[in-house]
Amino acid sequence: MEIIRVNAQVTAFIRPEEGVNASLIHTPKGKILIDTTSSPAEARSLIEAVEADIDDVRLVINTHFHSDHTWGNQVFSCPILAHRLCLEQMQACLMEEWSPGELRAYLSDLEKTNPVKADGFRKVLTNLRITLPTQVFDQRFDGELGGVKYQVIHLGGHTPDLSVVWLPENRVLFSSDLIFQGRYPYIFDADIPAWIAQLDRLLEFEAEAIIPGHGVRCGEGEILALREYLQTTWDLTAEHIRLGHGPEETAADPAFPRFPGEKYERLHQANIHYMYEKIKAAFSEPGGSNLRD
User: Fold this and answer.
1) Are 177 and 211 in contact (CB under 8 A)?
2) Which burial class, exposed, middle or buried, applies to 238 when counting CB atoms under 10 A from its CB (0-12, 13-18, 19+)?
3) Of 40, 36, 6, 5, which Cα lies nearest the Cα of 21?
4) Residue 279 falls inside a structural domain
5) Is there a contact between 221 and 239 (Cβ–Cβ < 8 Å)?
6) Beta partners for 13?
7) What is the percent of the chain where pLDDT is above 90?
8) Per the count of CB atoms within 10 A, which of 72, 193, 247, 273 is most buried?
9) Closest by CA position to 37, among listed 214, 218, 161
10) How far is the CA of 227 from the CAs of 202, 217, 254, 274, in angstroms?
């Protein structure tokens, strides 16, 4: 983990190996934590790393429902703010893939296929109490703490509930998982055309600093690179479908854009397959034969 002091009011926890990034907004009346990572232990470690106390955190913001952004919530006694859909998605997960039975089954499968990962997940589940947001909004939340103004803006795209956090006076944008910097994105809850549109929206902020959900501090170039990846992969997949190609033939096309490195290479073909199924379903709908984006 690399701790970056972006300015006097912002600390970013850049965690390319551990997983999702998180950030602190510092104010004279306490701190705001953006996302709580994958576990209570990880969430505590962030606060300890800046020699602060848990009670210094006066507000937690969950940018979306994924477990790597929300499973540390239980550490904090302050309000937890999120979009209404984030609360609803987390409630649904508790009845399905986050239910005790499903989590035990997932751990059992991991023990057979990846014992090292299973050990880590077992530790996460120990004393885990998935804690829901306590305060929700619909489109945009404008807040102020200790004279520091912040906005939480619902955009969707990566997930239906995703929100970004904007500091208008500092011009710092916390993009959450709308940006995966320098690597394949995780897209399996995504509306790809909406994601592409919201990347264009991010450019309108003209931010001086962008903290992505995954990867290092970035700028407009990374927004454009991810937009190009998503648009090109979507368009090329759609063209293969128009030509009658199956998913395996489509995914084997070397013309698809790629990211360097092996860590997330598994997502190259997986993302193509996901887009293939989404576009195929859209083509089957009335009027879908003219789908462009």
Assistant:
1) no
2) buried
3) 36
4) no
5) no
6) 3, 22
7) 92
8) 72
9) 214
10) 11, 17, 19, 17
- Give the 3-state secondary structure percentages of the chain, helix then strand then coil, rounded to 5: 40, 25, 35
For 132, which DSSP code? -
Q: Which amino acid is at 179?
A: I
Q: Which two tokens stand for residue 121?
A: 């997940």
- Side-chain-side CA neighbours of residue 117 (13 Å): 10
Residue entry with tokens 């999702």? 20
- Between CA 190 and CA 187 the distance in angstroms is 5
How many other β-carbons are positioned within 10 Å of the β-carbon of residue 239?
14
pTM over 0.90: yes
Contact 125, 9 (CB under 8 A): no
**CA distance between the termini of the chain:** 37
Residues in the chain: 293
Q: Count of domains in the chain?
A: 1
Amino acid type, 255: A
Domain containing 173 — which CATH number?
Answer: 3.60.15.10
* Structural domain span for residue 53: 2-87+132-183+206-219
Do the domain assignments include residue 169? yes
Could you read off the pLDDT of 7-58 as tens digits, one per residue? 999 999 999 887 899 999 999 999 999 999 999 999 999 999 999 999 999 9
Structure tokens at 13: 């926890």
Note the pLDDT of residue 292: 43
153 part of a folded domain: yes
